[in-house]
């Protein structure tokens, strides 16, 4: 349905109204700058609040134009309503994605906050969405995907431990190698890197506790909890010889989830820590005990 209220719909455009001349918005521009340019042209043309609403959709192109059709029917009663929704939707354009060897989570969060400080988004739904959209694929993005945040305050609180790990690893790296990671821009090896190894096949001297469920099924049942430490993904990388095998743990081809050595060792670690007792297969002797 029509997103504008009845009063805006019924507002006529004067015959002598001066055409608004602005570069069409196609979502690649800064939404703040675009709004300022549009409102300046409206002011020069002598337009009012209702005319601003009625003319604004005609200055949009592509995805931005399609976005207008997604607004709830009769939800826009003033231009402030429209501007608020517009900025919230396209504010992510101001925040560049994290580079694979680029900025830290701490710097990205600070830059995002600076870029969105003027956004009026009471329920923070759009800000949360924009933050996740710009976040590099990795442990923190996986954590947010598994347990979706409801506010930026929650994101900042949950990011603390990840930022602490980054800073600790940076200090260790500087002490070990004698240079600043920021200057070298080399990836820091974290404890999660040990999971980024191809699945091993064949015999092994390592003992694994017998389980009542397949490891792939256990992963599916605990993936939404804080127990598994998911490795940072390397998009497009084939991790093993089985090009058609897919691993849910690494989110990569090259081996199957069930054959994943890293998953085996992590599940065994969780078993030894007592977190997965319900999946441990009891021996016949133990089952016979009263």
From TrEMBL:
Organism phylogeny: Eukaryota, Viridiplantae, Streptophyta, Embryophyta, Tracheophyta
InterPro entries membership: Retrotrans_gag_dom
Residue ranges of every copy of the Retrotransposon gag domain listed in the record: 54-137
Protein name: Retrotransposon gag domain-containing protein
Pfam families: Retrotrans_gag (PF03732)
Highest taxon above the source species: Eukaryota
């Amino acid at each position: 349905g029509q997103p504008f209220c009845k009063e805006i719909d019924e507002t006529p455009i004067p015959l002598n109204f001066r055409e608004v001349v602005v570069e069409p918005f196609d979502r690649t521009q800064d939404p703040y700058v675009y709004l300022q340019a549009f409102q300046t042209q409206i002011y020069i043309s002598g337009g009012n609040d209702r005319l601003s609403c009625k003319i604004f959709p005609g200055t949009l192109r592509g995805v931005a134009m399609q976005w207008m059709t997604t607004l709830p029917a009769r939800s826009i009663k003033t231009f402030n309503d429209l501007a608020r929704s517009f900025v919230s939707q396209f504010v992510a354009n101001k925040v560049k994605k994290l580079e694979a060897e680029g900025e830290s989570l701490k710097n990205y969060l600070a830059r995002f906050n600076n870029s969105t400080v003027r956004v009026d988004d009471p329920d923070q739904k759009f800000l949360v969405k924009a933050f996740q959209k710009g976040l590099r694929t990795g442990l923190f993005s996986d954590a947010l995907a598994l347990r979706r945040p409801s506010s930026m305050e929650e994101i900042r609180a949950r990011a603390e431990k990840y930022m602490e790990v980054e800073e600790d690893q940076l200090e260790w790296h500087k002490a070990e190698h004698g240079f600043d990671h920021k200057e070298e821009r080399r990836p820091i090896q974290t404890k999660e890197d040990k999971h980024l190894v191809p699945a091993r096949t064949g015999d092994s001297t390592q003992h694994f506790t017998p389980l009542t469920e397949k490891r792939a099924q256990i992963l599916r049942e605990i993936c939404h909890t804080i127990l598994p430490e998911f490795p940072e993904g390397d998009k497009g990388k084939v991790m093993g010889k089985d090009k058609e095998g897919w691993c849910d743990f690494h989110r990569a081809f090259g081996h199957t989830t069930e054959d994943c050595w890293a998953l085996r060792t992590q599940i065994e670690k969780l078993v030894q820590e007592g977190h997965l007792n319900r999946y441990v297969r009891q021996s016949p002797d133990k089952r016979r005990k009263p």
